[in-house]
Specification:
An 8-stranded mixed β-barrel has the order 8-9-10-13-15-17-18-19. A two-stranded antiparallel ribbon has the order 11-12. It is globular and about 55 Å long. It folds into 2 domains: 153 residues, Diaminopimelate Epimerase, Chain A, domain 1 (Roll), CATH 3.10.310; 166 residues, Roll (Diaminopimelate Epimerase, Chain A, domain 1). It contains 5 helices and 20 strands. It has 349 residues and is of the alpha+beta class. Strand 15 and strand 16 form a beta hairpin.
C-alpha cells in the first residue's frame, strides 16, 4: 500500500483504576481553533471521526477515553487537552486530567523536575487546571488537582423508568451535568457483580430524564442530553477516615471502573450543601471494583447565583505503554472522513 494511504498516531496509553485513557501526543500537528474550547468545538462538529476511531473497534473500545494534546491559549498553561469519551466531549474530567498530567511528565513531553512535588498547569476546555504532582524524578506517584467548581441545580427530580420504577435524582454540575442518585434507596449495594444492572439503570435514566431536561451551562451554553449518572452510598467512617462507595455511568453503556473526579466532585457539592462536610473535610470515594480516589472540599463560594463547592481530588494513574497506531485508509473499518488531512503523520508502507 502506498504510504500516503496510511497515517500514524502516537499515543501514551494510561489507566486510572482500570479505566484506560489514551493521550494523543503525535500525528495531529494542529487542531483548528484559536483556543482550547474552540478546538473542542471543531473536533465535536468537524472531527468526531477521530473520537470514533480511537474509541471503537478495531482500534479501541467505548469504555476507553482519549485526550488530544493541543496548544494552550492561557498563558499559565503548559499544555492543553481535549477530552473524548463515549458520550462525546466533556468540558472536564478528573481521572483523565490525572492521566494526562502523568503521561506528559513521564514521557518527557513536559520536563520533570527534581524528585518531590511539582506544580503543572494544564488547560481543559473548562479552563485552567492546577495539578500538584508527586514524583521521584522518573515515575508519578500521585496527582492532586483542583476540579471545576460544582453546584447543585435542582433537588428531588423524578423519572419513571420502565424496569426500575420511579427514580429520584439531584441535578449537579461538576464539569458536566450529573443525575445523582441515592444507591441504597433504589436497591443498589454498588458491588462489582451489579455492573450490568448499573449500566441498564444509567442508560434508562439518561434516556428518560433527557426528555424533560434542558442542560444549559451559564458559560458553555447547551451541553446536550444528560450523559452522566452517579450513584453513591452514605458517607461512613472507615479505617483511614471518611469514605463512600460511588459508581459513575457514562452514556451510552459505560460504568466506570474508577470513582471518577467529576462524580466525586458532584457528591462533595451535595454533601457540602447538606452540611455533612465542610471546607477542609476529606473523603475517599471507592468504586464497585475497589478503585479509590481522595476528595477534599477546599472552598465554598458564590457562582452563577448559587453556592458552589471547589474540591480537589487525589489519585494515581499508571502508564501502560507508548503506542503508534497505523490508520489504514483502505480498511473498511476505518472511518476517517473529515480527519484524513488532520492526520499528517504518514506511516511507512
Amino acid at each position: 500500500m502506498p504510504p500516503e494511504h496510511r497515517r500514524r498516531l502516537r499515543l501514551i496509553d494510561t489507566h486510572y483504576g482500570g479505566d484506560v485513557s489514551r493521550v494523543v501526543v503525535g500525528g495531529i500537528p494542529q487542531v483548528p481553533g484559536d483556543s482550547v474550547p474552540a478546538k473542542r468545538a471543531w473536533l465535536q462538529s468537524q472531527g468526531d471521526a477521530l473520537r470514533r476511531l480511537l474509541l471503537s473497534p478495531p482500534y479501541g473500545d467505548p469504555s476507553m477515553c482519549a485526550n488530544v494534546v493541543v496548544d494552550a491559549d492561557l498563558p499559565q498553561a503548559q499544555a492543553g487537552y481535549v477530552v473524548m469519551e463515549a458520550m462525546g466531549y466533556p468540558y472536564f474530567s478528573g481521572s483523565n486530567s490525572i492521566c494526562v498530567a502523568t503521561a506528559l511528565l513521564e514521557s518527557g513531553y513536559l520536563p520533570m523536575g527534581p524528585p518531590g512535588r511539582q506544580v503543572v498547569h494544564l488547560q481543559a476546555p473548562a479552563g485552567l487546571i492546577r495539578a500538584e504532582v508527586d514524583h521521584d524524578g522518573w515515575r508519578v506517584h500521585s496527582v492532586t488537582l483542583t476540579c471545576d467548581p460544582a453546584w447543585v441545580l435542582e433537588r428531588g427530580r423524578t423519572a419513571e423508568l420502565p424496569e426500575f420504577g420511579e427514580v429520584t435524582y439531584d441535578l449537579v454540575w461538576s464539569g458536566c451535568f450529573y443525575a445523582v442518585v441515592d444507591a441504597a434507596a433504589h436497591g443498589f449495594a454498588l458491588t462489582e457483580p451489579e455492573r450490568p444492572v448499573l449500566a441498564d439503570f444509567g442508560l434508562a435514566l439518561c434516556l428518560v430524564a433527557s426528555a424533560d431536561l434542558q442542560l444549559v451551562h451559564p458559560d458553555h451554553g447547551d451541553t446536550g442530553p444528560l450523559a452522566f449518572v452517579n450513584l453513591a452510598s452514605p458517607v461512613t467512617e472507615g479505617a483511614d477516615g471518611l469514605q463512600m462507595t460511588s459508581a459513575t455511568y457514562v452514556h451510552p453503556g459505560v460504568v466506570c471502573r474508577c470513582p471518577t473526579g467529576t462524580g466525586t466532585a458532584a457528591q462533595l457539592a451535595l454533601l457540602a450543601d447538606d452540611g455533612v462536610l465542610g471546607v477542609g473535610d476529606r473523603v475517599t470515594s471507592i468504586s464497585p471494583s475497589g478503585s479509590t480516589m481522595g476528595g477534599q472540599i477546599v472552598a465554598r463560594t458564590g457562582l452563577h447565583g448559587r453556592d458552589a463547592t471547589t474540591s480537589t481530588i487525589t489519585g494515581r494513574a499508571f502508564t501502560l505503554g507508548r503506542t503508534e497506531l497505523v490508520v489504514n485508509l483502505d480498511d473498511d473499518l476505518t472511518e476517517a472522513e473529515g480527519i484524513w488531512e488532520l492526520l499528517t503523520g504518514t506511516a511507512d508502507a
